[in-house]
Design brief:
The complex is a heteropentamer, with two copies of chain A, one copy of chain B, one copy of chain C and one copy of chain D. Helices cover about 25% and strands about 35% of the residues of chain A. Chain A is built from nine helices and 19 strands. In chain A, helix 2 packs parallel to helix 4. Chain A is globular and about 70 Å long. Chain C is mainly alpha-helical. Chain C has one domain: MetI-like (MetI-like fold), CATH 1.10.3720. The relative contact order of chain C is 0.12. By secondary structure, chain D is mainly alpha-helical. Chain D has two domains: about 30 residues, no CATH class; about 210 residues, Orthogonal Bundle (MetI-like fold). The longest helix of chain D has about 30 residues. Chain D starts with 7 loop residues before the first helix and ends in a 13-residue tail after the last helix. The chains are: A alpha+beta, B alpha/beta, C mainly alpha, D mainly alpha. Chains C and E meet through loops of C and loops of E. The complex binds adenosine-5'-triphosphate (2 copies) and magnesium ion (2 copies). One magnesium ion (MG) binds next to helix 1 of chain E. Chain C: It is a multi-pass membrane protein. Chain C: This is Sugar ABC transporter permease.
């Protein structure tokens, strides 16, 4: 239970096609993360899978069964909405417990399940409040709690952690990973957070403008992107794209990740430092170069570089990616 | 050029006024413009009272008989017309409905009275071989015969609107039992009571009518009754003379009329010849002169002829006899010669207090016909109500 | 919430037009009239009688019998609306608000049409339909084999009021329907979608999600029904006349007040007793509204979406 | 919304219920309309017969059109209804906003004060109102009617609208305040558009009694030039004889303008007007 | 214009005190970031500054003037709401332009301003849509656009980038920084993102449960936290807390950031690897130790460590922080 298969799924709102033929297989128990720029259709795809939106074309198969016309309630999945969509008239506890109550689960069990979810999400003290009395992050946690108490076979999470602070985010992320392991549930998860995507995913789906650009394991996408889009999208800070010609490299564009660009006296690329960002554990140095434009160098630890000083950069050739004029990877 | 506005409840007469009466008046008085402005009859009293209180009422006011108009006069809304020249054309009886109790002041020019009786489907009577009844026995025999035949509903009357039962039932046949004016005056004087046999008798008659009414008469409305009769489905219609013009246009069979039957052949018959409509003047009218000119004309025989012929069934109260064309109307008016006329028993003085005797009579008549109250109970209730506020009856 | 200290003129500006027009054209005339309830005609003209009129209304057995009869009938009239009109209105609105329902606009309009009709038509057509004479209702009942159930309902004391109340329900069901429909529309789609996901669909979605969210609107329609019913007049008046037959079995406060205040037929209008009745009605309705405003409304949570 | 979310069974049931009630709702209207095309005799001979072909009779309509200036009446009714409606909605919404948005001393009491008007039949104030109009020289003007109807419609409008205004998100109004919108601008540009369904509802409720009112036209403006359609139709209701063809014809015609107004307003009942406003 | 001063500001909802006496000075032109756990009162404080909530106690001074009683509209500030609070009936363009229109700005200028903001936020193609037709990230961008077109002196941002993808987030972050520089506007910014906080802030305010825990520059907080809470909150992944006693260090607890914990054969702390997260540019190794519990080691680049293998860890003593039993820093 829980395997998902999308076959040439399309979706239009009026005349604008938002999902442009998506094919995707998610195996049972897999953790699949959707990433992509804002507005590329992640939420829409999630809603189509949930049955909240009709696909304009194509088939949605759950466990091999076509479910295009099956009601959301019958698909046995749980969803965390990007907008939370909490029941405003119910307390936190009732928000989380309603689905179970509807399913006829015994009171004591509902209590146990909601208590457990509340504990997991540090919501214990808020159980009797209503959504209007919660902070943004608290609401988001309630929305997550509502999904997980039901322990269905397929979870859909739409940016579930975006409003949480770092500590809570790590904690919740780990909880979700554990849930995934324990339940063997299939999960589809939308996020903009690189760390979440890299750490949680069995499989990352990179979407762009309603199309799947590449599907693969996190490290696969990181180390072997198919095109400039995926290369640029996976990894933060973004990959630097340099002009191959000026470097004497093959292809049109050479991609090199900020962590593989070093500041080395006498390096082949020279430029001036335009900006330095100190993040504590690492330092980002932005170097303006000709003809490559602004390049990002990521350094481990704290470093002091003076803005406007001239530096030379060096690339690790083994870590460079080459792309043709269309952005396609040359291997 | 002055303009006079007439307040009236007679929506029905709009065309007659516009096409006949006002042009006739204007032929003599081209300088007086007259506008007939009726409102729906049910709201007339309330609307008129409000307008008079606020000062926006028309110059001429159509008068209901007795207390409704008397009250307006007492409040100073109606002008005293005692000295109007045209008043000389009316008998005291005609004027009595629009006079103070002592008769010292008259405030409306009488226009018409209506007479009660029964209209019947002459074709049906002929078909069933029924003679026009004059006595109670003949009356019920006729009804029985119609009922037995089954083609026609014997009598078209319903109790839904209540006033039908009281006006066309109780006040139609009642005078025969309480002997017209004699009983009515005795009641006012406190010499008779509503529980006396002559006052209970009409209710007893009404109670008998139940069997001759159509199915579901309880929910039958007044227009239903009219339609039942004019569509030829009912044979007898307890009527007021005002129905004549409507029935003439609607019924496509021959009609006749008979007066309320008497107990035994040869008894004196009594009819209700009820003073019903008059016209007075708004005391605050800025056009009093013109209004008086108009009222004078209303008192003239010319107006009487016009009005009575335009509205057969509304009989002139003018002392000058009026020549009428309509045979049915002639039949009605002919009873004036044969029977003793009276007016409706509840109208003068007796409906001044609470409970209101007229309204109670509606209710009681309907109840008695429906069988939900016995005649004796109904009479007792009315008497108690009357006695509760009317000193001579205490 | 804006801060409190500076004079907030805008509040006055927002309130002024309504308060002025309303006070001048409604409150002053109405209370001028209600004031009459403290006066009455005595032997020496109109004089102040204090609560004397109310003493008559409740003390004099004739007046009080009429009053209690009217009040009782009115309560029944109201009860039928609460039990029939509002549930039907809510149900229809709930069905109509089903997303993607075809012809919803047509149904909505059709159901609302009776509300548009003038009382004159309503009175005429229902009397025509229910008339034992012209045969529509008996005929229709005959078709379904229930002819024996037919009775001249409007003419029977035991049925007339209920029949009229049901006619009124027929006419006005569009009002709760519209209000509830508008309230249902303001529930965000996402919340309903979340419910779908939770397996709360169909009627349980209505009971568990929508109903709690529209409770304030249900409160409003209840109080509007209450106020409307206790002020009702026209339907009874056009169907049964001011005497509210048969035998006053359909007399409600509105008709009782009309007869007394404006008079009817030979009965002269009595503004003093009429105002006393109006005062009593006003008291009853005010009581109801206060119970609603202070007792119920504050307890019905409103949710901002 | 997805078709996967609508089951055929439930859709069928929904339609069945709606059709049933639609039939109940429309049957009497149907009876009214067919009979308006028949002669009196035909109406009562068989009220359910279709006015086609042998019963067809336009006598009702010809009577109506002959008698009085019916188009003028329509126009008067339209003016009175629309103008009153405008003021009721404007003033009512403004007051409702003040009551629901701000806390100030006497807020609840003022709300109650404004609601008093729905508790007493305004007819009782007739004489005083008429006196005001006489004093203001407004008798037989449409202005008099507009004033009365505005006053009469306000309590209900305030009552209903203030309830709906409370559901408009505070964040939204606050965003407006931060954007430098004055309270007036917040009301007119943010709140009013968002309570459109409620405004439409109130408009419909307010318009019907105004359109169908007989009393105040009769008292305040009975003159021919300012007669409303309802008052105009009354001419056919006589003391003893009512011209049912004409009444039915006139009132059937009178349904049309309100129906049009209703359709206009009910288009404002749009699903999801606040969608996407807040997270 | 734009300096903010909060004096013992408190706020209660009913009986729960949510802001418990906050004192804070923000200088004119300063970029101040509020961080803190979900529900600690960040949004509430922002709303108090905006004038949307009345403070229960204390004073709010803008440019030295007490504004407790000044209407929000008069405070001349712009705010991005955590819930977006877009005008649902207006198009994207009108949402952004409303304030200007209200201020009586000429049509052409409004057009220019909205076009510019739209360009900045990649909203050009969406200008005629209404909020309901936008994705979550698009809505958030509109909310930002609405704030920035007005260019007031004080900006309040409540998690403005939480729903944006990495690339857009970086771009928008840079735009906001530029805006800050160009306008010299004071900005108060709530975020959960470490990178945003560290790169944008002149001053970070760490809130906890309605109280200010520490105020300071990003590097100050990173390198010189006052207590375990701040130490743990700033920096991601979180600082490791070890038992001082077992290490022979002073105080109760010794804090060491993951990047300052090294895997070195023969190091003093030994444990088994429980989990490895590869993020591409860096690798996080989770090591279970006695008696310190789970420790995080952050390594630059990609590394392969076998789960369950035993490793020894070494701390950089100069980078260690010492805290007493109450969590207070020992210096
Ligand atoms: N209207 C309210 N009634 C009662 N409690 C409230 C209300 N609004 C907020 N709270 C509580 O006040 C606290 C602070 O809320 P606030 O929204 O300021 O948190 P926050 O720091 O912005 O959190 P987040 O990061 O999750 O958005 C929370 O615990 C919240 O539950
Ligand atoms: N109801 C609608 N009508 C028209 N366009 C819509 C509608 N809903 C979404 N869209 C458009 O469809 C596209 C995809 O939206 P979707 O919500 O799936 O994006 P997303 O990938 O979830 O973005 P984000 O990361 O910002 O949440 C967007 O460009 C959006 O503007
Ligand atoms: Mg999305
Ligand atoms: Mg917040």
């Amino acid at each position: 239970m829980g395997a998902l298969d999308l076959k040439s799924v399309t979706k239009s709102f009026g005349t604008t096609e938002v999902i442009k033929g998506v094919n995707l297989e998610v195996a049972e128990g897999e953790f699949c993360v959707f990433v992509g720029p804002s507005g590329c259709g992640k939420s829409t795809l999630l809603r189509i899978i949930a049955g909240l939106e009709d696909a304009s074309g194509g088939d949605i198969l759950l466990d091999g069964k076509r479910v295009n016309d099956v009601a959301p309630a019958k698909r046995e999945l749980a969803m965390v909405f990007q907008s939370y969509a909490l029941y405003p008239h119910l307390t936190v506890r009732d928000n989380m417990g309603l689905a179970l109550k509807q399913a006829g689960v015994a009171k004591a069990e509902i209590l146990k399940a909601t208590d457990k979810a509340a504990g997991m999400l540090s919501l214990e003290r808020l159980l009797d409040r209503r959504p209007a009395e919660l902070s943004g992050g608290q609401r988001q946690r309630v929305a997550i709690g509502r999904a997980i108490v039901r322990t269905p076979k397929l979870f859909l999470f739409d940016e579930p952690l975006s409003n949480l602070d770092a500590a809570l985010r790590v904690a919740t992320r780990i909880e979700i990973a554990r849930l995934h392991r324990d339940l063997g549930a299939t999960m589809i998860y939308v996020t903009h957070d690189q760390v979440e995507a890299m750490t949680l995913a069995d499989k990352i789906v990179v979407l762009r403008d309603g199309r799947v650009e590449q599907v693969g394991s996190p490290m696969r996408l990181y180390n072997d992107p198919d095109n400039t889009f995926v290369a640029g999208f996976i990894g933060s800070p973004q990959m630097n794209f340099l002009k191959s010609a000026a470097l004497g490299q093959m292809g049109e564009t050479t991609g090199i990740r900020p962590e593989h660009l070093n500041i080395r006296h006498g390096g082949p690329i020279s430029g001036t430092i335009s900006h330095v960002e100190k993040l504590g554990g690492e330092t980002l140095v932005y170097v303006r170069t000709e003809p490559h434009g602004l390049l990002t160098v990521r350094l481990f630890g704290e470093h002091d570089y003076g803005v406007d000083s001239t530096v030379q950069l060096d690339i690790e050739p083994s870590r460079a990616f080459h792309f043709d004029a269309d952005g396609k990877r040359l291997r | 050029q002055t303009t006079l506005t007439i307040e009236s409840w007679r929506n029905d007469d709009l065309l007659i006024w516009q096409d006949t009466i006002i042009p006739a008046f204007n032929a003599q008085h081209p300088d007086i413009n007259v506008v007939f402005s009726p409102s729906a009859p049910a709201e007339y009293n309330a609307v008129l009272n409000s307008k008079l209180s606020a000062g926006s009422a028309g110059d001429l006011i159509t008068c209901r008989p007795f207390d409704a108009s008397l009250e307006l006069f007492n409040q100073g809304h109606l002008a005293d017309l005692t000295d109007l020249a045209g008043m000389a054309n009316f008998s005291d009886v005609a004027k009595s409905a629009w006079q103070t109790d002592d008769g010292s002041a008259t405030f409306c020019v009488p226009m018409a009275s209506v007479i009660h009786g029964f209209i019947y489907n002459a074709d049906a009577f002929a078909e069933l071989g029924i003679e026009v009844p004059t006595t109670e026995a003949e009356f019920y025999a006729a009804l029985d015969k119609i009922k037995a035949d089954g083609t026609y509903i014997p009598m078209a009357m319903g109790t839904n609107d209540q006033w039908e039962a009281a006006t066309m039932g109780y006040n139609n046949i009642g005078p025969t039992y309480w002997k017209g004016e004699e009983g009515r005056k005795a009641l006012i004087a406190g010499e008779q009571k509503l529980t006396d046999p002559q006052w209970v008798a009409p209710f007893e008659q009404l109670a008998k009518w139940k069997d001759y009414l159509g199915d579901g008469f309880e929910a039958q409305t007044y227009p239903d009754s009219q339609n039942l009769f004019t569509l030829g489905r009912a044979a007898v219609y307890p009527a007021g003379s005002w129905e004549i013009s409507g029935f003439n246009t609607q019924a496509d069979f021959k009609m006749g009329a008979f007066a309320p039957p008497v107990a035994a052949a040869g008894d004196t018959c009594y009819i209700s010849d009820h003073t019903d409509i008059a016209i007075g003047m708004n005391a605050k009218s800025p056009n009093a002169e013109a209004a008086k000119v108009f009222l004078d004309w209303v008192g003239s025989p010319e107006f009487a002829t016009l009005y009575a012929n335009a509205l057969p069934g509304f009989f002139s109260l003018n002392s000058t006899p009026v020549e009428m064309q309509d045979p049915l109307a002639q039949e009605f008016v002919s009873w004036r010669g044969k029977c003793e006329p009276t007016i409706r028993s509840t109208y003068q003085i007796l409906s001044r207090g609470t409970p209101n005797l007229e309204n109670e009579t509606w209710n009681a008549s309907a109840n008695v016909i429906r069988g939900s109250e016995t005649p004796a109970d109904a009479a007792k209730r009315l008497q108690d109500g009357l006695a509760s506020w009317y000193d001579p009856q205490k | 919430m804006a801060s409190k200290k500076p004079v907030r003129w805008h509040i006055a500006v927002f309130l002024a037009p309504a308060v002025l027009v309303y006070t001048a054209i409604m409150i002053i005339p109405l209370f001028g009239t209600l004031n009459l309830s403290l006066f009455n005609k005595g032997p020496d003209g109109v004089g102040f009688v204090g609560l004397g009129n109310f003493a008559t209304l409740f003390g004099d057995p004739r007046w009080s019998a009429s009053f209690w009869n009217a009040l009782g009938n009115n309560a029944w009239f109201f009860l039928i609306h609460m039990l029939v009109q509002n549930p039907i209105g809510i149900a229809l609105a709930a069905i109509l608000s089903t997303p993607r329902l075809r012809m919803a606009a047509f149904y909505r309009t059709a159901i609302f049409v009776p509300t548009i009709l003038s009382f004159v038509i309503v009175g005429f057509v229902w009397k025509l339909i229910l008339s034992p004479i012209w045969g529509i209702a008996p005929g229709l009942l005959d078709i379904v084999g229930l002819k024996t159930l037919f009775a001249p309902w409007l003419g029977r004391e035991e049925y007339a009021l209920t029949t009229l109340a049901l006619i009124s329900v027929w006419q006005f069901v569009g009002i709760p329907m519209m209000l509830i429909y508008a309230a249902l529309l303001s529930i965000p789609d996402e919340i309903l979608e979340a419910a779908e996901m939770d397996g709360i669909t169909g009627s349980s979605q209505f009971w568990k999600i929508k109903l709690p969210l529209i409770l304030p609107s249900i409160g409003i329609i209840s109080i509007l029904t209450f106020v409307g019913n206790f002020n009702a007049f026209d339907l009874i008046y056009v169907a049964q006349g001011a005497l509210a037959g048969p035998d006053f079995s359909t007399d409600i406060l509105g008709t009782f007040l009309y007869r007394t205040f404006f008079g009817f037929q030979l009965q002269l209008g009595d503004p003093y007793m009429g105002s006393a009745i109006a005062g009593a009605m006003f008291g009853i309705i005010l009581l109801g509204v206060c119970v609603y405003l202070f007792g119920i409304q504050t307890r019905l949570r409103r949710y901002q979406f | 919304m997805a078709k996967s979310r609508s089951s055929t069974g439930r859709t069928f049931a929904a339609h069945a219920i709606l059709i049933t009630w639609t039939v109940i709702a429309l049957f009497p209207v149907f009876v009214t309309v067919i009979n308006s095309f028949k002669s009196r005799r035909a109406i009562f001979a068989d009220p359910l017969a279709l006015p086609w072909p042998e019963h067809f009779d336009l006598v009702g309509y010809t009577t109506v059109l002959k008698q009085g200036d019916f188009f003028g009446y329509f126009q008067n009714s339209m003016i009175v209804t629309v103008v009153s409606l405008f003021f009721v909605l404007l003033f009512g919404a403004m007051a409702a906003f003040a009551l629901s948005e701000y806390r100030f001393k006497g807020n609840t009491l003022l709300g109650l004060y404004l609601a008093l008007g729905i508790m007493i039949p305004i007819r009782l104030g007739t004489v005083a109102i008429l006196q005001i109009m006489v004093a203001g020289g407004l008798v037989n003007t449409l202005t008099a009617l507009i004033l009365v109807y505005t006053a009469q419609g306000l309590p209900l409008a305030v009552f209903i609208l203030s309830e709906f205004m409370k559901t408009v998100s505070d964040d939204l109004k606050n965003a407006g305040r931060i954007d430098g919108l004055s309270e007036y601008a917040i009301f007119f540009t943010l709140v009013l558009p968002l309570v459109r369904p409620a405004m439409a509802t109130v408009a419909v409720f307010t318009m019907i009694p105004i359109w169908n009112d007989l009393w105040f036209p009769l008292i305040l403006a009975p003159a021919e030039e300012v007669k409303t359609i309802t008052l105009g139709s009354q001419i056919f209701i006589g003391q003893f004889v009512t011209n049912w063809n004409a009444v039915l014809a006139a009132l059937s015609l009178a349904i049309l303008p309100v129906l049009v107004l209703y359709l206009i307003f009910s288009r404002q009942l749009i699903r999801g007007i606040t969608a996407g406003a807040v997270k």
